Amino acid sequence: MWIPTEHEKYGVVIASFRGTVPHSLSLEIGDTVQILEKCDGWYRGFAFKNPNIKGIFPSNYIHLKNACVKNKGQFEMVIPTEDSVITEMTSTLRDWGTMWKQLYVRNEGDLFHRLWHIMNEILDLRRQVLVGHLTHDRMKDVKRHITARLDWGNEQLGLDLVPRKEYAMVDPEEISITELYRLMEHRHRKKDTPVPASSHHLFVQMKSLMCSNLGEELEVIFSLFDSKENRPISERFFLKLNRNGLPKCPEKPERHCSLFVDLGSSELRKDIYIMVHIIRIGRMGAGEKKNACNVQYRRPFGCAVLSIADLLAGDTKDDLILKVYMCNTESDWYQIHENIIKKLNARYNLTGSNAGLAVSLQLLHGDIEQIRRDSMFTHGVSITRKLGFSNIIMPGEMRNDLYITMERGEFEKGGKSVARNVEVTMYIVDSGGQILKDFISFGSGEPPATEFHSFVLYHNNSPRWAELLKLPIPVDKFRGAHLRFEFRHCSTKEKGEKKLFGFSFVPLMQENGRTLPDGTHELIVHKCEENVSLQDSSRYLKFPFSKGHLLGNNHQAVKTTKESFWITSFLCSTKLTQNGDMLDLLKWRAHPEKIAGCLSKLKEIDGSEIVKFLQDTLDTLFGILDENSQKYGSQVFDCLVHIINMLQDSKFHHFKPVMDTYIESHFAGALAYRDLIKVLKWHVDRITEVERQAHNQEVLKAQEYIFKYIVQSRKLFSLATGGQNEEEFCCCIQELLMSVRFFLSQETKGASTLSQAQSVFLSSFPAVYSELLKLFDVREVANLVRDTLGSLPTITNADESLQAVKLQCIGKTVESQLYTSPESRYILLPVVLHHLYVHLQEQKDLVMCARILSNIFCLIKKNSSEKSVLEEIDVIVNSLLDVLLRTILEITSRPQPAGSATRLQFQDVTGEFVSCLLSLLRQMTDRHYQQLLDRFKTRDELREFLLQIFTVFRILIRPEMFPKDWTVMRLVANNVIITTVLYLSDALRKNFLNESFDYKIWDSYFYLAVIFINQLCLQLEMFTPSKKKKVLEKYGDMRVTMGCEIFSMWQNLGEHKVHFIPALIGPFLEVTLIPQPDLRNVMIPIFHDMMDWEQRRSGNFKQVEAKLIDKLDSLMSEGKGDETYRELFNSILLKKIERETWRESGISLIATVTRLMERLLDYRDCMKMGEVDGKKIGCTVSLLNFYKTELNKEEMYIRYIHKLYDLHLKAQNFTEAAYTLLLYDELLEWSDRPLREFLNYPMQTEWQRKEYLHLTIIQNFDRGKCWENGIILCRKIADQYESYYDYRNLSKMRVMEASLYDKIMDQQRLEPEFFRVGFYGKKFPFFLRNKEFVCRGHDYERLEAFQQRMLNEFPHAIAMQHANQPDETIFQAEAQYLQIYAVTPIPESQEVLQREGIPDNIKSFYKVNHIWRFRYDRPFHKGTKDKDNEFKSLWVERTTLILVQSLPGISRWFEVEKREVVEMSPLENAIEVLENKNQQLRTLISQCQTRQMQNINPLTMCLNGVIDAAVNGGVTRYQEAFFVKEYILNHPEDGEKITCLRELMLEQAQILEFGLAVHEKFVPQDMRPLHKKLVDQFFVMKSSLGIQEFAACVQASPIHFPNGSPRVSRNSMPVSMSPEGARVIPRRSPLSYPAANRYSSSSLSSQASAEVSNITGQSESSDEVFNMQPSPSTSSLSSTHSASPNVTSSAPSSARGSPLLSDKLKHSRENSCLSPRERPCSAIYPNPSEPSQPANSGFAKWNEASIPRCIRDSPREPEEHVGPISALPEAYLTGKSSNLSTSSVAPDRRILFNHIGDGVLPRSDPNLSGPEKAVNSTPSSWSLDSGKEARNMSDSGKLMTPPVPPRPTQTASPARHVTSVSPSPAGRSPMKGSVQSFTPSPVDYHSSGLISNSPVLSGSYSSGISSLSRCSMSETSGFETQVNEHPVPISNCNISEEPVRKESKTPPPYSVYERTLRRPVPLPHSLSIPITDPPALPPKPLLVRPNNLENSSKRTEQVPRPRPLPRKVSQL
Questions:
Q1: What is the CA radius of gyration of the chain?
Q2: Which among 327, 922, 1235, 1697 is least buried, having the fewest CB atoms inside 10 angstroms?
Q3: Contact 1440/1408 with Cβ under 8 angstroms?
Q4: CA 1342 to chain centre
């Protein structure tokens, strides 16, 4: 049975429990659990980390801990009773654990490792606390360490500052807010502004002495030297070195170090030096021989100095190398350090070239004991003190040190020829004549010694030593002791004797008890024999010891006075004195007559002497007072005042406790109080009378201790007498205070002496309260203090310093013990508040006022419900609330001071006042609020108060009000604010609604509520789970509370709501964007209310819509809002408006806002990424268009134009940047209308801004190499300059325009690739989701690189491995799918491309700019597949993509608006392939003739590929497929097309013949054998075609060549082709060949077939796929560069046999993501550059337009009008015969919309090498466009042919015109090699290259088959819809009339070319040019194909065909 637990409430999991039993709770080790019930070894409860899940767990897995329970029952709360520091450590470490791991993820290794060490250290300290074996002091120390580390970690991790009191966390609800503020501020100050240390210490560590000439032991002496005062300021640190220069005792490293302590801040300056003297121990001369002398002497070696300023820049532990110097003469040794400091280089030099002293120095700061604890290296280190006492003398400090400096001596030669080598030996001799042992200290590093030997100066009778010694002689041995100095001459002879020749002595204490005075003493040198014994001191002590003593005692001079010895003494003792006056005072009983003099001299005695004997001095004073108070009372009082005030000095401040102890324990003056009160009253009474107040001020300053003596004396008297004279004492005190009140009440003006005395009294008066409380009741003292403080004048013109002192006195009163009692508080509070009010009213002394208020509220706890507290709150509210609000408003509206210290003080004042206000408001109850509101008599007063408090609350909510990590303080403040607002909202409803409505106060209320909710500290979603849980438990979600209050107040507004529409839409929208579901559900319905009221008022809600849209953009760009909000906004409002009459318009508004949210969310998500990518740009374009088209928000539209512009510039998309900025330019006019400052534009006229935009756009077009567009803008702005006669700028603009023309002709431009990208799946952003785009690639970017770039931009996307149109499952998938392949552009401007003589670098612009249409092809099998020849059933599906805007534009990609799908029959494909190959041959021949080729190799390779292939089969595959009887019978409608195909074959032969003639002329000598081979093979090829001589069927005609080369013309028998006559064709005719000749130039080699079969995986064998056999054809694709098999052609002509797809997989697509070699390509599918086709053109129009003229016109040509047969060769050469027009399309073609075929075909590679570019040249002379040529035709009756056989022209149906398009060579990178990898993709037949995709060129150069099979065929197969307004005249011919045609107009380079059934996109205004019809071109000769042999000899008349002239750039 489960029983509720009583004591087992809280525990820790000690082993993980997996919870395998039913209802079990899984637990991890370390989890804390709350136990609810128990049963048979099991507990039921929950883990604190997830309290919502309850379950059972074994009891033996839990370690129980003590805890207390609050709210017992269902909602009980368990709080562990462990130490709060332990609790905090546990929770903090848990929080750190998660964040610590994130540091590793973010690669913040340094903080990661530091935090790891801190966490381990905290865990160790936690264990020590938990063990509980620590002492109290050690526990405090451990807790201090723990909290310091917790605070450090919290600060490093950006966590909140934790308020603590005595190392424990405080509950903000348990203390007053002012106390909380102080705790927070204290920790903040401690963290931010460390208190500068007043005490500093220098750590010195000796490492070694580096010198080359060592060999003797050394002594190193460190000390600090003040060069300013020219004296040492510290004792010495003494260290011995061995012969190697290393310290002795290496096993004790602490002996090598010392700590120079107690350096004041004034001593850290540049003229303080570290001084190092080095003494060697050895022979007299450093160079003496070793056996010269065995006696060791101390001799000078060197000196080094270092300024302490070098250490101030930064503490360092690195070793320093100090240079060691030696004086040039030993006599200067005593001042060598000064010479080095002064840089007197002549007096010293280096001891050696490499001599150096290695030391380590470090400055330490703070208390020495703390440093000793914290720094390991200071343990055991010697302490080197300052000379004398430290700056602060501590009581109890015991010192008795005598410092002796042996200065110098003056000695006689002593009968010697040279000076002596003098050594001084010093001893300390006691009164008994015995030498004191171990009391001579050389320095802090060595123990004291018995004797001291000075160093020896060589041959010097006036030696100077300046050696400092410390003699720590005990006090008891000081009296009677003396110092003896013995002088010896040190011989340098072999014996090395030391001969005594004299001595000196000096007593340490005089006969009168005074010690040896400080200063220099000249001692007498007494001569003596060298063997004399000085052990009996009594023999010489009777002699005079100093010259001063000798003269003072009038002794006669003795012979020895010529020799002298000088020493300097300095006593530092706390027991001995050198002051005679002090001794006289202490011995006052011995000389009573001297008492008055001694008392008067006491003020002249140094304070250090007084504090040494403080107790004795005080006893003396009170003893004198007791014995003779009448005579000496006033003097004693003055001496007592002097001593008391002396202790106020910081140097003696620490002796105050000594005096306190004396008063409590040693003071015995029971009668002293009478005299003290009397004298004190006498002084107070005289204050107002005397002018000189100095002494009186001293008395008032000492009143605290005077009262202490008075009170203690009275207590002693009461104890002794049993409380006698109590009334008398009270009267005395009353009279004294009355005198005080009278003196205080005197008003003074200005800084008078009286006001100064008042200030002094007030400063020290509060210290008296505690003394009075020892004798009087609390109420009595409070009344005394109240009366005294009440006597203070409050006039405002009084001295300001006095006013400040008054306030300080009030402050000390509040801080005193007296004020802590509620009884005294009630008495004192009115006085305190009165003074506070006066100062706050005047805005004076705000710092002190804030401090006083804080102290007042610190005494009032939060939950104090005592009556006294409530009454105090009443008083404070009535007195200070108003002025407190005004004060906060005043100080927060001031500008913050510049100085850091002043600014900190300013912030402190603000924070303290705020905490006081919050404390007051938190203490106020319902009654207080009601009384407050009732106090306002008028509504205006209430209105003013509410506005004021709302404003203050808004200030409190500001982020800068508290530091960032003060979350605890912010939450408390918010809790108080929301509580107060809830109280005040009732007053708002009652007093300011209906007829009393006040907009301002309601607006202030709503504004406050909104910014309250939006506070960062209330956004719980950003908190850690533990922090969020704590906040919710303590305060709940205050945002929801305030949101409900907003909704309630809004509903109360009623008809006044309209006043807040649309002003509150933005603020409320900001609230609803907070991700809190409850808050959103409350606030979103308000928008419905707003729409309703706006509809009532104005009939629409345009204002609501406009405001919503404007605010959404700014708010969402700040990161607010999410997808959930969008859905919630939509659903809530749609539900709300269901029953409204304006439902339709409401739905429209909601839909618009929802769509905007979608785009803004996408935009925000995209902008979070680092680099600029297509997603960012595309998203910006989508948003920009939305603002323009759907919202018509011009300003937002312009803003996003510039955001897009910046993105393009960052991505270096300069062309797109120019197009983008052009959008803004089009909105402006050339006018003088002034424009405001906007974005980065200054205030200027519209003309100026448009000019600036034009220049910027031109610059970007220039950088993007789009110079043609820049030229147009140059002209436009030049026109403006010209109209204003601004010729200077006009000239510059013309120069710029000219430079752009030069760049067009001189600089290379690369043609970009274009890629179709499909984005499928719901995970894509809205603007991409389930849409397809065409993207303009970067320079040199191929499909693989583009695909990788897209996958990088969308790292979660899946690349689709086929090009099939996705199904609905892909569209709706919760994923991202990318489908990418290359497409081919279809240029709009055909005229420029067709025009002959235009350079390629001009044409290249029109091929890839202003492109609307793109296409790609897919081969597939239709019907039964013929395994012997698959070309019979191989169809091609051609898909055309039409974009919403042309590329390039404002983006690198645009969405596909429409797609058109058309099927091409096998025969049509064959015609297209042959036609392209013929066009390519013409191009190469023409380029070679006009010498446009630098190298003839491209022509050679092309000829070889076609001729060599023809010898071995060539077009036989086409013959097998289409020229057999079976095909002709089954397809009677294809008769004309078959004829056309036959004619193309014959045409190709004629072109080849002429090409060989041209080749022969230009071929180099080394290629002649190849040429001969080609000629031979060509005759074989002709014979295989059945062509013997063209003359047999064609009448010869002269052909004229511009270059004079003869034309070879051969005639052959004409061949008639019909279904019936198929059998009578000659046997060798190519038309009669069976399908047995499988091998042609288009055949794929078995290698290529196998390769493709393996790649595609679409067939089991290559034979199945391609149906091919091996062949010896040299034109087979045997090279490694053969085309990919996916590019299958339906034409088995001389191109090559195309592989067929398997029937089973005819609808499958090839892998679009394979490598270049693996992917299929459409090499032999020609890709004609096809202009866009009208969307509404039906099958008939399209078909008619697509049928070649040889087919379309033949049925309508009468036989009698057929031209002579002799015209054939000419026609073949010119290519103008309609019979040779081969772009025929059978009715089998279908227009299929919204369907993509199965095949994927690649684009050509635009990066071809130089030779390939030559191959890819454009034919430029294939049409007779000039008028001269037309006249030649009509006049002579002969066809004047161009030098190369032109290709047939194409006629158009009435609806369409077939435009001959001559592709220009694409811009290729010269860096690319000639071997091209095929870029796979489902591209069009035609790519941007110029080599035809004809099978003739489908192989490699080396094998005779062109490897450029992926390049473009001639673009003449493209179709353009054109309608001519005038019929075309046909001369000399009765051919059926040419269909009416309209000339195509070339659109401007970046015009948005408008077409049928396309959404019109307006042409950019600044780039639009009026389009006019160009004049018709001269007629071109048309040749009609004869139908029979009879009319074969007749010539067809040339039918002129008008052509549009290419438009010049200036017209664009």
A1: 55
A2: 1235
A3: no
A4: 34
